[in-house]
């Protein structure tokens, strides 16, 4: 089967890829994953993401400060990230949001940094990649204050069908990855079953959250085909249709 897939959320700058990134990219190409977005979590990783995107034509970058790193953000962080956005290889701002599972940064700090980044993304007309863990209602409440954003995708969507419906009503997209393949994740399968295919983006979040056949091992973009096959099964459509529709949506959203 021939696919053209976009991995809309990867962390290819991670040290786990330092020894064999070219092999990882070759395997991705072999499986039809012909474009990838590598996503920053702080200034340093965002800078690495942009460098990778400049080096490899199939890679694009997103820049931003993850909620875990919110406590370390200072005014020059925003200046540096704005400068990175001058590159045409930057297609989104993220990943940003709230993580109340770990609270590595204080909640009030996470909120302030999230709002600041939504403001900047709006100014730069960049879509945003949302990290939302155990903070669905607060994330949705904050986003309600930023109606002019270029686009919103909930990366590694973890809400229930009710939260998904709110996202869809607002025109947001859902990022779906390897967790869909986990045997106990019936809630996410229900969400996918009831979400229009054109509102789903495919992602790996590699090196994290490998699909079931490789669970517990390093994830990589080539494994995206497992997500395609699971969506195909759930929605009773061909893998080719899953690939075509999700890729077209991602190309339009990220302007790639």
Q: What tags apply to this protein structure?
A:
256 residues, 8-stranded parallel sheet, globular, 9 helices, alpha/beta
Describe, in plain words, how this protein is organized in 3D.
By secondary structure, the protein is of the alpha/beta class. It has a single domain, classed as TIM Barrel. The chain has helices spanning 21-30, 43-55, 75-84, 107-124, 136-143, 161-169, 186-193, 224-235, 239-254, and strands at 5-10, 33-39, 59-63, 90-99, 128-133, 152-154, 173-176, 200-202. An 8-stranded parallel sheet has the order 1-2-3-4-5-6-7-8. It starts with a strand and ends with a helix. The model has no long low-confidence stretch (mean pLDDT 98).
**SSE sequence, one letter per element:** EHEHEHEHEHEHEHEHH
What structural class is derived from the secondary structure elements?
alpha/beta
Assign the CATH architecture: Alpha-Beta Barrel
- Shape, please? globular
Low-confidence stretches: none
Total beta strand runs = 8
Q: Give me the Rg, rounded.
A: 17 Å
CATH homology group: Metal-dependent hydrolases
Please give the share of residues in helix: 40-55%
- The proportion of residues in beta strands is 15-25%
**Taking strands numbered 1, 2, ... along the chain, how are they ordered across the largest sheet?**
1-2-3-4-5-6-7-8
And the CATH topology? TIM Barrel
Number of contiguous helices: 9
Report the biggest beta sheet as strand number plus sense, adding barrel if it closes: 8 strands, parallel
